[in-house]
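Pilot study result, target chain (486 residues):
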Amino acid sequence: MGLRSFQDANAASSIPSVFSGYVDVTATPRYSFESAATPEAKSVVLSFIVSDKGDPCAPSWGAAYSLTAAEAELDLDRRIARLRQSGGAVSISFGGAINTELSVGCTDPARLTGAYRDVVERYDVSSIDLDIEGTALADTASVDRRAQAVAALQADRKKMGKTLDVWLTLPADPAGLTQTGRDVVARTLRAGVDVTGVNIMTMDFGGSKPAGQSMYDASASAAEAAHAQLQTLYRANGQDIGSDTAWRRLGITPMIGQNDVAGEVFTLDDASALNAYAKSKGVGRVSMWSLNRDRTCGSNYPNVAKVSDSCSGINQGDALFSTVLGADVIPTGFAAAQTAPPSASPSPTVTDDPSTSPYPVWNESARYVGGDRIVWHGNVYEAKWWTQGDSPDNPVDQGATVPWKLIGPVLPGDRPSPRTTVAAGTFPEWSSTTVYKRGSRILFDGYAFEAKWWTQSDSPQAMLEGAPDSPWMKLTPAQIQSPAAK
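Predicted structure:
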């Protein structure tokens, strides 16, 4: 091996290979990334931060939730803390195919830098993903604004002794990065951004994929071409990286199952082949769109050829794309957590402080119903159904019979949430003899309920005890303030 090859191999060996699945934060039903069932799903890329509809310089989740609203309505901050508590890792993705990317909407350089900083600091991440698609690709003014803002943020964090990895996620075809994609990389590098790597989206190839070519073959072809393109792009910016290092700076992200383009289906066999390919080349990042979709569609989903946000469109059996694609690709953060030696002594029991706990501290004699939240030993739990005397952190309880769901740890800065009370007379008290139609609202045991359908003599107590077929729905504070269903 020559000196140059030795130096290249040595440099590449210092860069980890990772598997990180994308999670669509605002998609419904909500994907519980904080409760990952497998090691491969414990490193996530939360998506997508875009411009707020009311203020293009304010970051939002999918133009639907401000950062504060995501904390209040999606429990996002606590769920991120819970994933980290279990050894997981989080990156944040900006952009995506829909809505307005921050640098497109925000033309004020100082506010744009501040928007990226707000997200990075709030979620305390050391890695971000810039997903640049659609019209944003050719918007060179926004490309330059984004690059300048991110370069400034990287410089600021370096002064603080912190790092910020930056991945560019760009469309590709079997010939590699598109011309506009290559221009984005070149302009971003010229602006002084330390680009950790370029992640190619090997999906929705359309007419660029030859008829009969498998999705794996098209993905591998795109990766081979992009690998050579990256060496050229980095070299043009004064960074003469070798072949091994270029592979480490490459990411590959397929769309699992049914793609947006009719007839394009990324199968489990494609996933297995791509995993083997990525490991043989030393690819630095393997991802997938998305963890939300990593399951077989239900029997009531009529057309699996139509893309769903919550299932893959193929029969996966017991297999998971994340397990197949991520096999032996170490998720960032998780490996260290798994291999760390056990603590010599158990963690001390946390004393809960009612003056700072966001919810009441659990009381053995109190009654709790589905949806009630409490704090116990530094963590927030939510009752699945009526319960009394069941310790939330009982180390023996397991499976579906456990009445409590762990949401995540109490966070620094948490303060008590206002107690929700429903004043007598707000709605009529429930009566076993009254006929209630859909949308009727009543009070029972201090809680407000709304009828899901016609009912008579069905006590809301059954709902409080977790009966799935109860005709009653317990109302949240927000629902109490909104009009009843018609």
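One observation from the pilot: The chain has a mean pLDDT of 91. A full batch analysis is planned for the follow-on phase.
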